[in-house]
Amino acid sequence: MAKKKKSPTPPPPPVRKKPPRPVVTSTGKAPGKSSGKRPASPAAKGSGKRMLVAGGLATAALVAVGGYVVLDRRSDAELREALTGGSCEVDTQADSKRSATGHVPNPTYTVEPPAGGDHNPSPARGGVYAGTRVPADGLLVHSMEHGYVVVWHQSDLPAEQKAELEAFEQRNDGDVIVAERPALPVAVAATAWQQRLLCGAVEPAALDRFAEQYIGKGPENVERG
Question: 57 and 165 in one domain?
Fold first, then answer.
């Protein structure tokens, strides 16, 4: 029996090559192809830049205001801590919260010791006063309006503490008044315009910080002496 001839093996089908992938630039577009969008005009670009600058300035302003508020609150907290570290307390009691008040011949006060309100036409001058030499309240309040700090003390304050108050007045010569006050409800008090420091004893550090903060801060910061 004759052998059958093998038919020739057909050639394999040709391999189809994929077309090369287009090169994509950083803009996400194939080179040489137009996006179809018109380029922005110089005026539009300038407007965009101005908007960015304005936005940046607004953000910077908000950050600055926020930082100022934080610093202001921190400063207030540090001041209160410095004033109340010993036997002292602080408050803002005064007979008037107006920035300036009227001149009257014989003013009276409900806050003890006073720290603001109507006052005599003339102020008292800096110094240490006791007994009948102590100026009237209306004169002392007028001094506070001019930026003085007034330190009041009870009559029976120990001699060494009175000496500390005299030294305090000398450190702030011309800007401070030390006045004896028999009816004072605390041993020592320091007052400026609408600011009070009430202490159970002389606290030199607190008094110095109070003076540093409030001397010259009255609504009428005129020459003192």
Answer: no
Domain count, the chain: 2
Do 85 and 205 touch, CB atoms closer than 8 A?
A: yes
Count of beta carbons in the 10 Å neighbourhood of residue 112: 16
With a pLDDT cut of 90, the percent of the chain lying above it is 60
Instruction: Tell me which residue range forms the domain holding 124.
Output: 86-214
Report which of 169, 181, 179 is spatially closest to residue 211, judged by C-alpha positions.
169
Q: Tell me the torsion sign for CA atoms 224, 136, 213, 162.
A: positive
Q: How far apart are CA 44 and CA 84, in angstroms?
A: 60
Residues 114 and 136 occupy one common structural domain: yes
Residues whose CB is less than 8 angstroms from the CB of residue 125 and which lie 6 or more positions away in sequence, other chains included: 143, 177, 224, 225
Amino acid letter at 182? P
What residues does 180 pair with on adjacent strands? 153
Same domain, 136 and 167: yes
Q: Tens digit of pLDDT for each residue in 98-112? A: 887 899 999 999 999
